[in-house]
Amino acid sequence: MPAVKIGRLGVHVSHNNNGLGSDILEFIKAWFTEKNKTGCRFIIVDAYNLERVINFYERNGFRFLTGNDEGSDTRIMYFDLMTYGYDELSTTSE
Question: For the chain, what is the domain count?
Fold first, then answer.
């Protein structure tokens, strides 16, 4: 399946916990879904296998690709762009 790979997303420590990382991911999701200009279906990241990092990506809708990397330094996580905007659409149509 076509995907865009971020690799690792980093925010300078002085900008931690202010939503900048989530804003960046939101921009990427919107950019890759607008008019389907890229044909990508997934966003892939190599997340450091640290609880705070994993939690950040999970809060932003990312899921683990596999359980085989559970003991590794990084975990491969993905976001399905087909789900982007679905929650917003379903709540506005009620």
Answer: 1
- Output the pLDDT for position 33: 84
Residue 76 belongs to domain with CATH number:
3.40.630.30
Tell whether the torsion through CA atoms of 13, 53, 25 and 74 is positive or negative. Answer: positive
- What pTM does this model have? 0.82
Enumerate residues 6+ apart whose C-beta is below 8 A from 61: 79, 83
Whether the Cβ atoms of residue 59 and residue 51 lie closer than 8 Å to each other: no
- What's CA 26's distance to the chain center, in Å? 8
Quote the domain boundaries for residue 63.
Answer: 3-92
